[in-house]
């Protein structure tokens, strides 16, 4: 086994290679925009160059004169279609072609459709808008913002959590800090560009588009187009990076569907990298004020976390990470408050660990500062404040292995060799710093359906409308079936990413492995029950051996007594060629409406902080070494170690890969990523990968992921905690902690750049 | 992207003839109807973005003159054919040994794939990457003369602190050019008015009131070679590039340095600065400040102060003055300490 395929420990599955690995590396995996489609026409978007005002005139003549131009869809052409409804499946409530009001920079003003991609692009570039322009509000501190309380504005963010009397406890605390932190706008920039391919087959609409939520989109798109959802199909078998950006549907999808209908031809629109900044969602910029009060012994008595987040004028998108930060440690008292600041911007949305990334960054940076203020080792400080129950509802954690994570990561990192004195460690002209931070992510699960068929030839077909966004869910779902049905993984075909399959929840909130595996488990167990019943029935090959433990292995039913029967023979006695089971999994605590909502594309989430019996979170600890040049102050990260505990690990290879990707992203969030907003115009400036920096290979040196064994039966039947979003939580704070240790400079505003260290 | 005519002339004179046919005397090479393309890594990008709009591309890659593809080392120096790829020059043994500053400047630029595609002449002539220049909805005097400069009071972290004007503060982003200007390179060009040699320092124009005029070249002039004179002590030279990430990023500040030392005393220094100026920037004042001095942190610091004495900061790029100075100090000390 090599580093990429860690040896499984207790409660960890085999590091099987991804079932679709070969397809991906040989270019045979067809991403939605790759799909060969006959008689296709190409669409290109024209977008606004102002952030606020009205389009008074659209000049289309030059565009119409482009040879090969077929159609232009613009104002008036969407009137028979309903506007998007902001919420689960829609990124925004702005129907850009429904009215001439401009709400944000880069808003769609037309779709040019032509015989070739080049002609469509040329035509789109030639569409000229005249505006009645108003002075826009860019962000925090710009004139014209409107601030509202976040609590209750989103079903996911019901309240500002609190506990005890913060004011009194903070006033009485012997040691305290009161600091402000900020994180910038960030765009996902998945390498696969955003695209929609739509075609009609009679009155049926088929859309190929990278999507993390085919069921939700089917229902929402049908609503916009006033159609029966059964007549809409969304297909998204492979996705080249999503990170939340392909969770909500954007207005483009309906516009392309309308274009395809008008032309009676398939239409494909690939959004340019630059246009994605204004037509898709992004991570909102956030600000934080954190107050921590503690005794001289390091015990925290008071914790307050206030957050401010930018959102659009039409839609109140809530980031809201105080539920996690308010439950992180054993604070004596907690006070939180989240505010939304509305500006003339497109509506933000989910981006990998949406609430936790910015909020835990602020908390963990503050924890490091508090430890320094107390003169205490930062790991020790966390150990002292390890809670027995979470401070808000006083519920137990279903499992919590944070200290094990700290211990194992500290050991592997060599934390003991760290000289705690700031600026004391050097290597030639490089200042060396070491820091750490906690990662946390809520463990949620949602209803999910799956269909599994076992054939007499020993093949398995598994169908589930979940999404392979690169996490390996196809592989782990197959592994689950392989294990329960005793069939080798190469005999199992897994179909996903199509709204005509049994519905699965949105692939967000790190719920996929838990939800999909629980449904697959249920379907497989139903097949097992049928097989066993048939085998043990009168005349069956295991007749007489009732109520025994049994297992399925290598195509056989094996009873505890040692008796066995070939599955093939059991099916023969049943006189069937296959057994197929359709299972609907609903988590503990699900409402009677839960399955209905699954089919409606609005699944309930359970777990996290929602359950009565306990709160459910996955934890990790990350340690980072940085080097800062004595003269020029550039920051490099030669080493990073993360230890994570997330219940049952289905596959150590795909789990490590997710956590590794998260940690790398965390380094990017610490040092590179930021979308710059021109504050005069409320427009994005660095709209491509030349100026929107993410780490490259040379930035990532020695990276180690430790999978800490953990068993948790309370979270879901599969015993799985999501870990897709765990790895990038906390990383930026660990980097900031290391930078402080190296330089004595406490950087509170991300990203940490040379200019902050030069002064 | 607009349709264009694509031609592949087979020798220099044919290419020049085509160019002069479809351009006029006053055309700027970057605004002319017919434009040369080499690796295309800069020009094709700007055509897709609608920033460059030639309706005729003259591809230089089929020109039969072999000297265009050769690196020749002689007693007099080194001569790079215009079509030599960045990667080839960066890996050339003699270049690495005799002019480490050149090899470094190429090795630290762009990515492996781009270095394999991009030509040396194209590299030298690459256009700025100012975000407001790259996206056609912004006001930009360089792209549309007289339309204003959105960067001046906008987000200008990457912009220049040296050599700017009220009309434009776009940075010259190339790396190789800093090495060339420091080493007194000469550019060979051929056009309809004949062949000529242009001192490298005269090739690029500061923006002044006419930021759309970027170089001294005419629209029908082909760069054929870049010649670097012999300079034995250039073995003690290096290029230091400071950027936001470890690779594949433009310089926030860079320094090309070559030193002729007598013990620790500077007999002669060659210094150019990148990432901070509107054109390849020879820091002669810093060279003069060091001449005859013992090179240490103090004298290097004084030279760096002199180099940036005239620097003009804007809202987001003021840090480049301090960073530029420190980059130069570090480069000077590292060059002093080179084992040659
Ligand atoms: C993502 C990215 C990162 C980059 N990073 C760096 C970096 O870190 N450092 C750096 O220095 N560069 C960097 N570059 C720029 C890159 O080096 C240039 O794009 C490349 O060198 C241009 O060479 P080319 O042959 O492709 O030129 P082309 O794109 O073919 O041409 C560029 C210009 O030169 C003209 N031209 C070309 N050859 C001749 C000739 N013989 N005579 C007259 N005119 C000619 C063309 O008409 C055009 O105007 C980067 C580029 C990209 C895309
Ligand atoms: S700095 Fe120069 S290139 Fe950039 S917007 Fe201003 S004029 Fe244009």
UniProtKB/TrEMBL annotation, chain A:
<dbReference type="InterPro" id="IPR000674">
    <property type="entry name" value="Ald_Oxase/Xan_DH_a/b"/>
</dbReference>
<keyword id="KW-0500">Molybdenum</keyword>
<dbReference type="Pfam" id="PF01315">
    <property type="entry name" value="Ald_Xan_dh_C"/>
</dbReference>
<feature type="domain" description="Aldehyde oxidase/xanthine dehydrogenase a/b hammerhead">
    <location>
        <begin position="26"/>
        <end position="135"/>
    </location>
</feature>
<protein>
    <submittedName>
        <fullName>Putative oxidoreductase with molybdenum-binding domain</fullName>
    </submittedName>
</protein>
<dbReference type="GO" id="GO:0005506">
    <property type="term" value="F:iron ion binding"/>
</dbReference>
<dbReference type="Pfam" id="PF02738">
    <property type="entry name" value="MoCoBD_1"/>
</dbReference>
<dbReference type="InterPro" id="IPR008274">
    <property type="entry name" value="AldOxase/xan_DH_MoCoBD1"/>
</dbReference>
<dbReference type="InterPro" id="IPR046867">
    <property type="entry name" value="AldOxase/xan_DH_MoCoBD2"/>
</dbReference>
<dbReference type="InterPro" id="IPR036856">
    <property type="entry name" value="Ald_Oxase/Xan_DH_a/b_sf"/>
</dbReference>
<dbReference type="InterPro" id="IPR037165">
    <property type="entry name" value="AldOxase/xan_DH_Mopterin-bd_sf"/>
</dbReference>
<keyword id="KW-0560">Oxidoreductase</keyword>
<dbReference type="GO" id="GO:0016491">
    <property type="term" value="F:oxidoreductase activity"/>
</dbReference>
<dbReference type="InterPro" id="IPR016208">
    <property type="entry name" value="Ald_Oxase/xanthine_DH-like"/>
</dbReference>
<dbReference type="Pfam" id="PF20256">
    <property type="entry name" value="MoCoBD_2"/>
</dbReference>
UniProtKB/TrEMBL annotation, chain B:
<dbReference type="InterPro" id="IPR016167">
    <property type="entry name" value="FAD-bd_PCMH_sub1"/>
</dbReference>
<dbReference type="Pfam" id="PF03450">
    <property type="entry name" value="CO_deh_flav_C"/>
</dbReference>
<dbReference type="InterPro" id="IPR051312">
    <property type="entry name" value="Diverse_Substr_Oxidored"/>
</dbReference>
<dbReference type="InterPro" id="IPR016166">
    <property type="entry name" value="FAD-bd_PCMH"/>
</dbReference>
<protein>
    <submittedName>
        <fullName>Putative oxidoreductase with FAD-binding domain</fullName>
    </submittedName>
</protein>
<dbReference type="InterPro" id="IPR036318">
    <property type="entry name" value="FAD-bd_PCMH-like_sf"/>
</dbReference>
<dbReference type="InterPro" id="IPR005107">
    <property type="entry name" value="CO_DH_flav_C"/>
</dbReference>
<dbReference type="GO" id="GO:0016491">
    <property type="term" value="F:oxidoreductase activity"/>
</dbReference>
<keyword id="KW-0274">FAD</keyword>
<dbReference type="InterPro" id="IPR016169">
    <property type="entry name" value="FAD-bd_PCMH_sub2"/>
</dbReference>
<dbReference type="InterPro" id="IPR036683">
    <property type="entry name" value="CO_DH_flav_C_dom_sf"/>
</dbReference>
<keyword id="KW-0285">Flavoprotein</keyword>
<dbReference type="InterPro" id="IPR002346">
    <property type="entry name" value="Mopterin_DH_FAD-bd"/>
</dbReference>
<feature type="domain" description="FAD-binding PCMH-type">
    <location>
        <begin position="1"/>
        <end position="233"/>
    </location>
</feature>
<dbReference type="GO" id="GO:0071949">
    <property type="term" value="F:FAD binding"/>
</dbReference>
<dbReference type="Pfam" id="PF00941">
    <property type="entry name" value="FAD_binding_5"/>
</dbReference>
């Amino acid at each position: 086994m090599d580093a990429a395929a860690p040896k499984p420990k207790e409660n960890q599955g085999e590091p099987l290679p991804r079932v679709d690995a070969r397809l991906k590396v040989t270019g045979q995996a067809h991403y939605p925009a790759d799909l060969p489609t006959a008689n296709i026409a190409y669409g290109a978007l024209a977008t606004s160059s102002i952030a606020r005002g009205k389009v008074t005139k659209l000049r289309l003549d030059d565009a119409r004169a482009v040879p090969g131009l077929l159609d232009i869809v613009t104002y008036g052409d969407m009137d028979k279609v309903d506007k998007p409804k902001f919420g689960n499946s829609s990124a925004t409530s702005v129907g850009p072609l429904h009215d001439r009001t401009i709400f944000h920079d880069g808003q769609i003003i037309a779709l040019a459709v032509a015989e070739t991609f080049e002609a469509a692009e040329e035509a789109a570039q030639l569409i000229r808008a005249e505006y009645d322009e108003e002075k826009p509000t860019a962000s925090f501190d710009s004139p014209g913002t409107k601030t509202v309380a976040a609590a209750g504005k989103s079903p996911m963010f019901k309240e500002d959590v609190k506990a005890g009397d913060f004011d009194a406890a903070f006033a009485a605390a012997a040691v305290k800090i009161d600091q402000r932190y900020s994180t910038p706008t960030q765009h996902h920039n998945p390498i696969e560009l955003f695209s929609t391919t739509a075609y009609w087959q009679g009155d049926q609409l088929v859309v190929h588009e990278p999507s993390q939520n085919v069921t939700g989109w089917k229902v929402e798109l049908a609503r916009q187009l006033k159609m029966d959802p059964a007549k809409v199909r969304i297909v998204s078998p492979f996705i080249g990076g999503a990170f939340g950006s392909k969770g909500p549907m954007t207005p483009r999808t309906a516009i392309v569907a309308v274009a395809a209908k008008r032309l009676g031809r398939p239409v494909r629109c690939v959004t340019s990298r630059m246009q994605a900044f204004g037509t898709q969602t992004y991570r909102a910029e956030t600000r934080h004020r954190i107050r921590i009060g503690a005794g001289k012994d390091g015990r925290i008595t008071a914790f307050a976390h206030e957050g401010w987040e930018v959102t659009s004028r039409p839609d109140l998108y809530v980031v809201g990470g105080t539920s996690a930060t308010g439950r992180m440690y054993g604070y004596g008292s907690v006070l939180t408050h989240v505010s939304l600041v509305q500006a003339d911007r497109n509506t933000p949305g989910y981006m990998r660990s949406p609430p936790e990334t910015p909020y835990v960054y602020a908390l963990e940076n503050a924890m490091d500062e508090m430890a320094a203020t107390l003169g205490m080792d930062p790991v020790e400080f966390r150990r002292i404040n390890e809670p027995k129950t979470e401070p808000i509802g006083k519920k137990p954690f279903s499992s919590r292995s944070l200290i094990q994570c700290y211990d194992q990561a500290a050991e592997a990192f060599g934390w003991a060799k760290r000289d705690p004195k700031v600026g004391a460690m050097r290597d030639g002209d490089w200042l060396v710093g070491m820091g750490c931070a906690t990662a946390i992510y809520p463990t949620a699960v949602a209803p999910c359906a799956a269909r599994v068929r076992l054939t007499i030839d020993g093949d398995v077909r598994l169908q589930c409308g979940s999404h392979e966004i690169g996490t390996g869910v196809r592989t782990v779902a197959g592994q689950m079936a392989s294990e329960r049905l005793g069939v080798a993984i190469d005999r199992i075909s897994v179909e996903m990413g199509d709204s005509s399959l049994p519905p699965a929840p949105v692939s967000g909130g790190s719920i996929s492995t838990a939800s999909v595996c629980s449904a697959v488990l249920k379907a497989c167990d139903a097949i097992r029950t049928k097989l066993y019943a048939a085998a043990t029935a009168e005349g069956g090959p295991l007749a007489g051996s009732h109520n025994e433990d049994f297992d399925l292995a290598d195509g056989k039913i094996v009873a505890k007594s040692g008796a066995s029967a070939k599955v093939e023979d059991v099916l023969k006695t049943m006189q069937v060629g296959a057994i197929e089971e359709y299972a609907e999994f609903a988590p503990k605590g699900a409402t009677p409406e839960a399955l209905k909502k699954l089919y409606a594309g609005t699944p309930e989430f359970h777990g996290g902080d929602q359950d009565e019996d306990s709160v459910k979170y996955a934890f990790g600890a990350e340690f980072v070494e940085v080097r800062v040049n004595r003269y020029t102050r550039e920051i490099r990260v030669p080493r990073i170690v993360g230890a994570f505990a997330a219940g049952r690990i289905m596959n150590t290879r795909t789990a490590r890969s997710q956590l590794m990707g998260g940690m790398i992203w965390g380094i990017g969030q610490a040092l590179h990523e930021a979308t710059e907003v021109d504050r005069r115009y409320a427009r994005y400036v660095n709209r491509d990968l030349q100026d929107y920096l993410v780490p490259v290979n040379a930035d990532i040196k020695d990276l180690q992921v430790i999978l800490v064994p953990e068993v948790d039966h309370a979270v879901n039947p599969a015993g799985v905690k999501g870990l897709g979003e765990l790895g990038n939580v906390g990383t930026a704070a660990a980097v900031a902690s290391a930078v402080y240790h190296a330089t004595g400079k406490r950087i509170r505003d991300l990203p940490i750049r040379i200019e902050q260290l030069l002064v | 992207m607009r349709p264009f005519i694509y031609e592949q002339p087979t020798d220099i004179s044919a290419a020049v003839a085509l160019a002069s046919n479809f351009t006029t005397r006053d055309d700027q090479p970057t605004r002319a109807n017919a434009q040369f393309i080499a690796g295309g890594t800069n020009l094709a990008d700007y055509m897709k973005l609608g920033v460059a709009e030639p309706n005729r591309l003259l591809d230089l890659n089929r020109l039969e003159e072999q000297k265009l593809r050769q690196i020749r080392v002689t007693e007099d120096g080194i001569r790079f054919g215009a079509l030599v790829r960045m990667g080839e020059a960066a890996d050339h043994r003699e270049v690495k040994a005799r002019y480490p500053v050149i090899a470094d400047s190429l090795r630290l630029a762009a990515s492996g794939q781009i270095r394999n595609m991009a030509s040396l002449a194209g590299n030298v002539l690459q256009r700025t990457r100012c975000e407001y220049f790259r996206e056609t909805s912004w006001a930009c005097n360089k792209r549309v003369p007289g339309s204003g400069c959105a960067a001046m009071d906008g987000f200008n972290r990457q912009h220049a602190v040296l050599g700017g004007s009220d009309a434009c503060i776009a940075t010259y982003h190339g790396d190789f050019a800093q090495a060339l200007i420091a080493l007194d390179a000469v550019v060979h060009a051929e056009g309809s008015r004949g062949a000529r040699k242009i001192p490298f320092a005269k090739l690029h124009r500061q923006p002044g009131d006419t930021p759309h005029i970027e170089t001294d070249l005419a629209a029908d002039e082909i760069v054929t070679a870049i010649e670097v004179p012999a300079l034995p002590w250039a073995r003690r030279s290096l290029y230091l590039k400071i950027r936001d990430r470890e690779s594949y990023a433009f310089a926030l500040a860079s320094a090309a340095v070559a030193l002729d030392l007598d013990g620790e005393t500077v007999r002669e220094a060659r210094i150019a600065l990148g990432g901070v100026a509107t054109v390849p920037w020879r820091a002669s004042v810093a060279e003069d400040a060091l001449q005859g001095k013992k090179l240490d942190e103090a004298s290097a610091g004084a030279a760096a102060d002199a180099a940036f004495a005239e620097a003009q900061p804007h809202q987001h790029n003021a840090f480049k003055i301090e960073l530029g100075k420190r980059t130069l100090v570090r480069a000077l000390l590292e060059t002093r300490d080179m084992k040659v």
